[in-house]
């Protein structure tokens, strides 16, 4: 809906452009910022942070148990997302697993240019922030 509203596109053209940007850049918002000078933090407020997730995501005991069973003496649980931090924090809180991660690497919408998956720099950022010695120590 954001594409259609802010770029004055039909629903079909908006969907096509959204998918093109997603495929070309890893995040649709990257294309919006690059080609249409959209404010990424405004986009996040109007799109990701505005999603009605409260009714969709609920605490997931099975997922929590799975994560609690990870031997943290061998593995450091770390969130790694293309979303902005506010969205990522909201999702894990709604799932009831926000206390099970030691940190988070996210796409920082406040810094240009965006570094996001699948760019190698995003994986390097995650490794650095998580304190991994090398990518061989990571499970993505």
Protein model, in words:
The chain is mainly alpha-helical and 140 residues long. It is built from seven helices and two strands; from the N terminus they run αααααβαβα. The protein has a two-stranded parallel ribbon with strand order 1-2. α6 links the parallel β1 and β2 (103-105). The mean pLDDT is 94.
Radius of gyration: 17 Å
β-strand percent reads under 5%
**What is the averaged pLDDT score?**
94
Structural class comes to mainly alpha
Main-sheet strand order equals 1-2
Supply the number of helical segments.
Answer: 7
The shape is globular
Number of strands: 2
> Helix coverage percent of residues?
40-55%
**End-to-end Cα distance:** 31 Å
Q: Which spans of ≥5 residues are poorly predicted at pLDDT below 50? A: none
- Tell me the major beta sheet: 2 strands, parallel
- H/E topology pattern: HHHHHEHEH
Layout of helices and strands, plus pairs?
Blueprint lengths: L1 H6 L3 H15 L2 H9 L3 H7 L14 H8 L9 E3 L4 H10 L8 E3 L14 H11 L10
Parallel strand pairs: 1-2
Helix pairs in contact: 2-3
């Amino acid at each position: 809906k954001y594409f259609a509203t802010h770029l004055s596109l039909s629903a079909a053209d908006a969907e096509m452009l959204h998918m093109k940007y997603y495929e070309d850049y890893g995040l649709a918002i990257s294309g919006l910022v690059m080609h249409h000078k959209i404010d990424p933090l405004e986009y996040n407020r109007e799109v990701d942070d505005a999603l009605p997730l409260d009714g969709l995501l609920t605490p997931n005991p099975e997922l929590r148990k799975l994560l609690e069973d990870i031997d943290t003496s061998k593995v450091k649980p770390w969130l790694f997302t293309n979303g902005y931090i506010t969205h990522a924090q909201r999702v894990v809180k709604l799932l009831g697993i926000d206390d099970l991660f030691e940190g988070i690497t996210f796409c920082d919408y406040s810094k240009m240019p965006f570094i996001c998956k699948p760019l190698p720099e995003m994986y390097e950022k995650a490794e650095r922030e998580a304190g991994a010695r090398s990518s061989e120590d990571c499970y993505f």
